């Protein structure tokens, strides 16, 4: 597996900082694995599933 150089890592971190916000949530111990497995069964990452659910909720609210 190829390793990132220090400069590549800095560039990636700068891009993320400038283009993304971060959300942190708290859940009961053990639930993360349950949620992650569910997302994987759907062929998605946990992050992708959460964002899709939020976007769907916002879309339904505006109808």
- Helix fraction? 55-70%
Total of helices = 3
| Radius of gyration, CA atoms, in whole angstroms | 16 Å
Number of strands: 0
SSE ordering: HHH
Uncertain spans: none
Q: Structural class of the secondary elements?
A: mainly alpha
Backbone shape: extended
Largest sheet: none
Through-space gap between termini: 47 Å
Average pLDDT, to the nearest integer?
Answer: 95
The percentage of residues in β strands lies in: under 5%
Write up what this structure looks like:
It is extended, with a radius of gyration of 16 Å. It is built from three helices and no strands. The mean pLDDT is about 95. It is mostly helical.
What layout of secondary structure does this protein have?
Layout: H1 6-19, H2 31-41, H3 46-61
Question: Outline of this structure?
Answer:
65% of the residues lie in helices and 0% in strands.
Features:
single chain, 63 residues, mainly alpha, 3 helices, 0% strand
């Amino acid at each position: 597996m190829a390793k990132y150089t220090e400069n590549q890592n800095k560039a990636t971190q700068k891009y993320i900082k400038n283009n993304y916000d971060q959300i942190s949530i708290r859940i009961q111990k053990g639930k993360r694995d349950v949620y992650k497995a569910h997302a994987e069964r759907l062929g998605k990452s946990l992050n992708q599933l959460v964002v899709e659910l939020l976007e769907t909720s916002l879309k339904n609210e505006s109808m």
